[in-house]
Every structure is written in structure tokens, then in C-alpha cells.
């Protein structure tokens, strides 16, 4: 099963085992969906095969973290590099490919446009986070395709813009690429437990 899954990834990506900067390319939505479907197949496999894929993905994640730092703080290009290399998202836990980070080459918004619109959305719902405050924080982007289109995921691609203060998440905004409309904003200023939703403010009316 593990070999079959690796073959499926190779066929879908049509890429060499190692992705160089020159070989970077955006996955189309159709290619991303094919990877998501392939990933679903592993959950019909034997537990040992699932654990093997999980352990391998964790190993890859930790190897990449030696160069890029925690995978929770990777920018979208590094995420997309990882997906092109392994066909799934970086994680220590159960491997997954839904949602799936890709390069925004086919996106309507630019990275800077997405950051600007997201900052406006955050500032509109949280007085403690005006534009100048957000400018002082670390801002990360990610562009995803997803099969589950409820809540904040959208068909044409979803931008995730996240701000950190050192190692603490401050806020996160999701945008619809088709028209730049914010779909949901999370504010973490009053949350003191990174493993709990307590204190997290959520806004969806934009």
C-alpha cells in the first residue's frame, strides 16, 4: 500500500524525487484534488501501513524543520515545496492532504493583496490590532485548495494569513481568492491556552 501511494503521488505530480527551485510549479485544483483522493485511500489500508506513512511523514517534517524551523511557522512557498515533494502536508500526526497548500500562481490575488485585505479585515473587528500594530508582527501566508467547502473553505482557493508575535499566534484571517472576501477571522489576544479555543474571538460577518 505504501509503495502504491508513493507511485500515485509520483504520477500525479509528474516530478522528480527532489524538487529544485527551477522545478517549482503550481498544482492545479484538479491535481490537488487527485492527491486528496489518493490520500483518502490510505485510510482503507492496514493499520501498519497507515502508521508507516505517518512515521515517514513525521520524519520528513522533522528533517525539513532543521532547515526551516517549526512547520507551524512555514510560509506558503515552503509548504508548497513540501507538498510537491511528498504529496501531503507536513505534520507529526495523521498524514493528510485536505486542505493542501499550493503555489498561488493561478490565484487571482497576489500575496501582498491577500495580506492587505486580511489586515483590513482584522483591524475592522479588533481595535487592538490596527494596521500599524499588524505591521510590527510576523505575517505568514498560505494558499490552499480544499475538498470540504463549508465554513471558510472556497472552491477557487483560500488564502490563510496569520500574524505572530514571536512564537505566539495573534490572529488569522481566511480569504476567498475569487473576490478577496474575508470568510472568517480568528483573534487570539485573549486566549492563553494554545490547545484550547477558550478566549478565541471568531468573526464571520464581512
Please report the distance between the alpha carbons of the first and last residues: 45 Å
Biggest sheet details: 6 strands, antiparallel
Q: What portion of residues belong to β-strands?
A: 15-25%
- Which regions have little confidence, pLDDT < 50, spanning 5+ residues? 14-22
Mean pLDDT: 87
Regarding quaternary structure, what we see is single chain
List the helices and strands and how they pair.
Elements: H1 2-13, H2 29-42, H3 47-68, H4 76-86, E1 100-101, H5 111-125, H6 131-135, E2 138-145, E3 158-165, E4 168-176, E5 182-187, E6 201-203
Antiparallel strand pairs: 1-2, 2-3, 3-4, 4-5, 5-6
Helix pairs in contact: 1-2
From the structure above, extract its key features.
206 residues, alpha+beta, 6-stranded antiparallel sheet, 6 helices, globular
